[in-house]
Amino acid sequence: MSGHASHEEHSHGSVKSYVMGLILSLVLTIIPFGIVMTGALGTLATALIIVATAVAQLLVQLVLFMHMNTKADEGWNFMSFVFTISILVLVIGGSVWIMYNLHQNMMIG
Asked: Where, by residue number, does the polypeptide cross the bilayer (predicted)?
């Protein structure tokens, strides 16, 4: 078995971590759903809560279901994930910035 990695080297989740991930994901889905359905908060507050719970749910799923961590053997996976997120933030942020500036500069009146 010199050429093959054994199962014990990789971190697999336990039933406890999967159940905890499921419960957290459900809670992080119910919170924005309840706020939107009741209309309890204003538009900006609702949008901020939706974004915050979406980011929290992304982190919960990456850590508890996909077992992404910063250990040495998983370092390349983590670094490629950080690079992907960085490119997405740059592209989406740049697009929103350009559209906002175009909207402001093209206003007639």
From this structure: 21-41, 47-66, 78-100
